Amino acid sequence: MPTPPRSYGLDNVRSLMVLCILLLHAACAYSFIVPWWHALDSNHLFFDLLIICLDTFALPVLFFISGVFAAPSHDRHGPKQFLIRKLKRLGLPIVILGSVLIPAMVYMGYLDRADEPLSFFKYWLAWMQSLGDWSFRLFIDMEGSAPFQDQFRPHHLWFLSLLLLFFLGYALFRRIGVSFPSRRGFAHLLLVPFLAMVLSFAGVNMLIQDWGWFKFGPFILLQPTRIPIYLIAFIMGRGPQTK
Q1: Torsion of CA 94, 96, 102, 104, to 10 degrees
Q2: Helical axes 227-237 vs 158-175, angle rounded to 10°
Q3: Residue (of 111, 115, 94, 116) closest to 150 by Cα position
């Protein structure tokens, strides 16, 4: 199947959303509502409002764009290559960066937390040994997650795990013949997915606080209240599959 023309508009939107996320994380250092952030400077209400504003749309837009390219990629490469490519582009970075970059990043905070810190090499060995922990954990506060801060987990790369799960789920649904509605069918009903996002967020938030996270094994770290939002955005972006 021929490669479709590149959408520079979507490229620009994706780049803008990445910049918004960078700005969001930079603002955390000046926020009242993120007291657990690694580096804290002076606080101001402006940064709280900025975080709340950016947090409402930046990541959902990126998941929407990922959904836009799901069907064309699946149709162009076929089911097997589609999965292989997604595992290489999303799975490998989680494993490689989780083994090299993330432990080095977390080690900087560990030096402040530990009374008698280990050398980085010993710390890294302990980090890699925690790959064998495939238990399920739910964190509803910083105190609950503290014992697991120095175990292998994706940390800031959590979105790669979730996106990979979405692509795997999409390939499975295509495999069993589930038909997805096209974006055109939803275009005049934007209120419906918006309400679905709001209601699903509120429903999950009744059970788990928005700042709660769950961890499954070393590679999956997700925020339960946000999963329905990102999933709906991904489905909204997904275009009609070809036969």
Answers
A1: 180
A2: 50
A3: 111
The Cα–Cα gap between 31 and 204 comes to: 25
* DSSP element (H, E) containing 136: strand 136-139
Token pair of 165, please?
A: 């799960």
pTM given for the model: 0.88
Alpha helices in the chain (DSSP H): 8-27, 45-68, 70-86, 92-99, 101-113, 120-129, 142-145, 158-175, 183-187, 191-205, 227-237
Reference 99, options 123, 118, 122, 127; nearest CA is 127
| pLDDT tens sequence for the chain (243 residues) | 555 666 778 889 999 999 999 999 999 889 888 767 767 777 888 999 999 999 999 999 999 999 999 989 999 999 999 999 999 999 999 999 999 999 999 998 899 889 899 999 999 999 999 999 999 999 887 777 888 889 999 988 999 999 999 999 999 998 887 665 555 545 455 677 888 899 999 999 999 988 889 999 999 999 999 999 999 999 888 754 444
Cβ atoms 167, 90 nearer than 8 A? yes
3-class SS of residue 222:
strand
Is residue 44 within 8 A of residue 34, CB to CB? The reply is no
42: left (phi over 0), alpha (psi -120 to 50) or beta: beta
Give dist(CA 209, CA 194) in Å, integer.
Answer: 20
